[in-house]
């Protein structure tokens, strides 16, 4: 096990330029029971209602600041709201029982040979494709051992893509997203270059985070989280906390991947530490957590190298703020 992860936890490290967070909540969480009562829209998320015929959505930008309630098995006052005949909603804590989150889910050690990062479409695509192949080599065996069926994901860098999840948000609101409906990570070239420039560790960290959402989708974590949405009013403290638990877990999964690749090939110890620390550069957000919390969960995965240590669903509320 490497030891450089401890350096990524050093609070004395200088913070880089603060960047907008990615509007990257897996789109599976936007879809739910179309017959349910629609939830109120966040002012910056109302455009989704014109794109997707869904009844519920997890607000990505919160306008409420409050003390977060405990989200344990008794949170909603019942074992679970009914979804349909004989189908009940799992509690947040029970999401932490997912087989992928058992201790010992360690990824394969991989050597990532990444081409030089460039701004032209061919070089940017080649960089992402190389990292994606590395992510698959690391995650696929671990998913298989956990009994999770593997499926590939694509990366699309076109600036005006057609997605199965609807139109992309405006560029001033989002850099990219993961769409579970078409198993694609959308990182429009112009947006990513504006946000990250040619900072290698930022691109590595971002794609690893988005792939973390794909892992959540494959393992069923997103299905269980999606089932929670009807429990909480949009923009409520519980609703926002649910989103943070999803996002922070993706950060942690990114750290686990980096642990499997650090010290070999293009992901040197220095690059690995920088990629983990890059999560500190994402802005404070009610839906993603403070920048320091975002970095801490990435560093946790990096330090332990075990997806079982990424159980945000059983973490106390103060650890997911």
UniProtKB/TrEMBL annotation:
Keywords assigned by UniProt, alphabetized: Hydrolase, Membrane, Metalloprotease, Protease, Transmembrane, Transmembrane helix
Compartments reported by the entry: Membrane
Highest taxon above the source species: Bacteria
Region (Disordered) residue spans: 1-24
Membrane topology (UniProt): Single-pass membrane protein
Transmembrane segments: 47-68
The keyword ATP-binding appears for this protein: no
Pfam families, A to Z: Zn_peptidase (PF04228)
InterPro entries, alphabetized: Uncharacterised_pept_Zn_put
Gene Ontology cellular-component terms listed: membrane
Molecular-function GO terms, alphabetical: metallopeptidase activity
The keyword Flavoprotein is assigned to this record: no
Swiss-Prot/TrEMBL GO biological process terms: proteolysis
Main location, first listed in the record: membrane
Protein name as it appears in the record: Putative metalloprotease
């Amino acid at each position: 096990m490497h030891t450089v992860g401890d350096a990524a936890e050093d609070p004395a490290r200088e913070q880089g330029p603060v960047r907008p967070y990615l509007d990257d909540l897996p789109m599976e969480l936007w879809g739910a029971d179309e017959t349910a009562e629609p939830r109120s829209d966040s002012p910056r998320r109302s455009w989704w209602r014109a794109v997707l015929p869904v009844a519920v959505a997890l607000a990505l930008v919160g306008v409420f600041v409050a003390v977060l309630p405990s989200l344990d098995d008794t949170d909603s006052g019942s074992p679970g709201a009914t979804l349909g005949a004989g189908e009940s909603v799992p509690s947040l804590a029970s999401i932490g029982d997912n087989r992928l989150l058992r201790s010992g889910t360690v990824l394969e050690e991989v050597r990532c040979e990444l081409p030089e990062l460039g701004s032209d479409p061919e070089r940017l695509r080649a960089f992402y494709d190389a990292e994606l192949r590395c992510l698959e080599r690391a995650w696929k065996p671990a998913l298989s051992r956990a009994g999770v069926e593997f499926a590939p994901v694509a990366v699309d860098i076109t600036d005006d893509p057609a997605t199965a999840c609807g139109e992309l948000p405006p560029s001033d609101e989002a850099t990219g997203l993961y769409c579970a409906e078409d198993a694609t990570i959308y990182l429009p070239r112009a947006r990513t270059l504006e946000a990250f420039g040619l900072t290698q560790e930022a691109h590595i960290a971002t794609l690893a985070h988005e792939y973390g959402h794909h892992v959540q989708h494959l393992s069923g974590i997103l299905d269980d989280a999606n089932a929670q949405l009807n429990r909480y009013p949009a923009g409520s403290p519980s609703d926002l906390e649910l989103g943070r638990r999803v996002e922070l877990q993706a950060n942690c999964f990114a750290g686990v991947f980096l642990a499997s690749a650090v010290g070999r090939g293009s992901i040197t110890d220095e690059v690995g530490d920088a990629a983990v620390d890059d999560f500190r550069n994402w802005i404070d957000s009610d839906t993603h957590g403070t920048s320091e919390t975002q970095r801490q969960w990435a560093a946790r995965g990096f330090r332990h190298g075990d997806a079982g240590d990424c159980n945000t669903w059983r973490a106390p509320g103060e650890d997911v703020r």
